[in-house]
Amino acid sequence: MDAPHDMGVPGPVVHRGAVLEVSPLSGRPGIRVRGEISVVTRPSWEEALAELARQHAEVSYVELSDVGFVDMSGVTALAVTAMDLPGGRVVVEHPPPHVPRVLEMFWPGLEEIEVVPR
User: Fold this and answer.
1) What is the pLDDT of residues 44-100, one digit of tens each?
2) Contact of 84 with 49, CB cutoff 8 Å
3) 22: closest CA among 55, 53, 48, 51?
4) 3-state class (DSSP) for residue 12
5) Is 109 in a helix, a strand, or coil?
6) Which one of 1, 5, 11, 83 is least enclosed by Cβ atoms within 10 Å?
7) How far is residue 81 CA from its own chain's centroid?
8) Among 104, 57, 54, 46, which Cα is nearest to 80's?
9) Of 77, 91, 113, 95, nearest to 34 (Cα)?
10) pTM to 2 decimals?
11) Going from the N-terminus, what domains does the chain have, and what CATH number goes with each?
């Protein structure tokens, strides 16, 4: 199992019932996220994305299979992070079903993000 990340979130962040846990992926660059991405967990989400961007090489992975919900601001932060990378792409694995729809609706043809659906 992945150890808690060293990206400013020492473990699960719980605020008003919302939980967000971010940890590094084993064997490849990226993060595994658990919980929900909403207004109350957004600072931790944005901090994790900023660290992902700092460590980005050619491909970074964001594993979202254990995420139940991502609000519009969370998807926006993901899209903006990917667009601001100096090159390469972000592979978003197993996001909630609405995430690819929101990306396609507001950022059609965004080549910096590849989505691997659930």
Assistant:
1) 999 999 999 999 989 999 999 999 999 999 999 999 999 999 999 999 999 999 999
2) no
3) 48
4) coil
5) coil
6) 1
7) 9
8) 46
9) 95
10) 0.84
11) 13-116 (3.30.750.24)
